[in-house]
Amino acid sequence: MPKRESNVVGREFGNGLRAAIAKTGLTQRQLAEELDWDESKLSDLVNGKGGVTAHEVEVLLAYCRLSLAERRHLMALFLEAGEKGFILFPEDGVPDQLRTLINHEKESSAIVAWSMNLVSGLLQTHDYAYAVAQAGPHEKEDVPKVVAARMARAEILRPGRTFTFYVHQQALLLPVGGEEVWREQLAHLLRMSVRQYINFHVIPRSIGAHPGVSGDFRVMKFPKYPPLVFLDTLNCGLFFDDKETVALYEDRVKRLAAVALDREQSRAVIDDILEGLQ
C-alpha cells in the first residue's frame, strides 16, 4: 500500500498502534528490527501515513499480542484510513470520542469553537461541567469520569496555542447548575477572557438568525496536518478533515466573526448578566 497523507482516521489508528507498541516494552526501533522493517516504515505507520499492506499490519498486531477485539478494531481503522471523515461510537465509560478529541486538541496549534446553547467545554468550570454531564446521555456512574476528562482538557489552555471561542448570548443566560454555579461560570469566563491567547466573542441575540444556527462545531489546526472539524452528538463524535467539509466550516467561522461582538463588548455582556444576579 502506498504512503498517504496523514488523516484523522490514520492518526486514530496510529494512536492505537502506539499504545499497543508501548505494551510490548519495546521501542519502535527494536520492534522494527524484530519485524525486519526499516524504522521509518513503522514511524510512518504510527503517524497515520500507511505505506504497508494489510497483511503486514496483521503480522505487526499479532506480534504486539493484542486481544482479538483490539486487533479487529485497529484493522478496521487501518482499512478505513482512506475514507473521508471518521465516525466514532463510544462503547462504555468515558466516551471514546472525548478521548480522541483530547488527543487532537493536544496536537493542535489553534482551536476555534462555536457553542450555541452552552459554554464551550474547554471553558467550563467543574460544577458547570458536572451539571451538563448529569443532564446528558451518560450513565450516572460515568458522570465523574466524563467530568474529569473534560477538566483534563482545559490543561491545554496555556500560551503556545491560540483559542477562539464564539458563544451565543443565550448560552450565557442559561442558569446551568443553579445560580451559584452559573455565577461562578460567568466569572470564570471573565478571568479567562483576559488571557492574550484566548479570544472570546459573544454572538448577540439581537441579530436574530445567525451563521451558527446549524449547531456547535470545532475547527482545529495543526503544525503538520490538515485542519480538522469536530462535531459532537449524543452518541458519537464526527471528525472531518476533507478539504470540502473544512472549507464549509471555515466559512462559518468567518461569518460568525463578522457578526460577533469584540472582546470588550463580549466582556460587557457577561458583566451585565452578573450585575443582574446581584
Describe the structure.
- The chain has 278 residues and is of the alpha/beta class.
- The protein folds into two domains: 8-83, 434 Repressor (Amino-terminal Domain) (Orthogonal Bundle); 87-276, Endonuclease, Chain A, CATH 3.30.870.10.
- Helix content is 50%, strand content 13%.
- The protein has twelve helices and seven strands.
- It has helices spanning 8-24, 28-35, 39-46, 54-63, 68-80, 96-107, 126-135, 143-153, 169-172, 179-193, 243-259, 263-276, and strands at residues 86-88, 110-115, 162-168, 198-203, 217-221, 228-232, 237-240.
- It has a seven-stranded mixed beta sheet with strand order 1-7-6-5-2-3-4, sandwiched between helices.
- β5 and β6 form a beta hairpin.
- α10 (179-193) packs antiparallel against α12.
- The protein starts with 7 loop residues before the first helix and ends with a helix.
- The mean pLDDT is 86.
Mean pLDDT over the full residue set? 86
Number of strands: 7
Q: Which CATH architecture of the largest domain?
A: 2-Layer Sandwich
Order of helices and strands: HHHHHEHEHHEHHEEEEHH
Q: How do the strands line up in the largest sheet? A: 1-7-6-5-2-3-4
Morphology: elongated
Q: Helical percent range?
A: 40-55%
Number of helices: 12
Q: Looking at CATH, which topology of the largest domain would you report?
A: Endonuclease, Chain A
The major sheet is characterized as:
7 strands, mixed
